Amino acid sequence: MPDNNHANIATADALTLLLHNQHALRAAIEEVALWARSTGSPETHENAITALETLDTNASAITAGILQLRQI
Predict the structure, then answer these.
(1) Which domain holds residue 26?
(2) What is the pLDDT of residue 1?
(3) Residues 26, 52: contact at Cβ < 8 Å?
(4) Interatomic CA distance for residues 63 and 42, integer angstroms
(5) pLDDT tens by residue, 6-59
(6) How far is CA 24 from the centre of its chain?
């Protein structure tokens, strides 16, 4: 039987890397949103803000999953 703990650690590590990528994408989208607002593109700004809210929600769920995997 495979060691489930090693699989959980590997999964948590992979999810952590994806979460770091998500944080980087969030920062880039936030920069674009600020640029869009400053150049007079309120629709683009609002669309970017909506995307940021989705990233934030999903980041919270991913973090909870990572913590759960690391406790097992």
Answers:
(1) 4-71
(2) 43
(3) yes
(4) 31
(5) 999 999 999 999 999 999 999 999 999 999 999 999 999 999 999 999 999 999
(6) 8
**Amino acid (one-letter) located at 49:** I
pLDDT top residue among 4 and 44: 44
Number of domains in the chain: 1
Phi, psi for residue 29 in degrees, rounded to 5: -65, -35
Please state the pTM of the whole predicted model.
Answer: 0.81
DSSP string for the chain: ---HHHHHHHHHHHHHHHHHHHHHHHHHHHHHHHHHHHTT-HHHHHHHHHHHHHHHHHHHHHHHHHHHHHH-
